[in-house]
Amino acid sequence: MFWKRRGTPVPAAEATAPARPAAPVARLPVTNDGQNRLLLILEPWGSEVWVEPGEKVTVITVGAADGDRP
Predict the structure, then answer these.
(1) How far is CA 54 from CA 3, 34, 70, in A?
(2) For residue 45, is it left (φ>0), alpha (ψ between -120 and 50) or beta?
(3) Residue 22 falls in which region: left (phi positive, over 0), alpha (psi -120 to 50) or beta
(4) Residues 44-56 pLDDT 10s
(5) Is the pTM of this model over 0.70?
(6) I need a labelling partner for 45 at 20 to 30 A (CA). Which of 12, 28, 59, 69 fits?
(7) Which residues have CB under 8 Å from 21's CB, separation 6+?
């Protein structure tokens, strides 16, 4: 599942904090620097999200840092 959250970005100190069990363990920032909408497809669920020109989103995985499947 994918949620698009708008508003104030997460402070850098919080974004790099050590992961707790069932806490965010990986972050992938995506920025659409182009002039057209960008289709972001997240696998394995096939979630589709449109990223508008100039928009920034962060894909976050949730799970245990030492687990086989975060």
Answers:
(1) 18, 7, 29
(2) alpha
(3) left
(4) 778 899 999 999 9
(5) no
(6) 12
(7) 64, 65
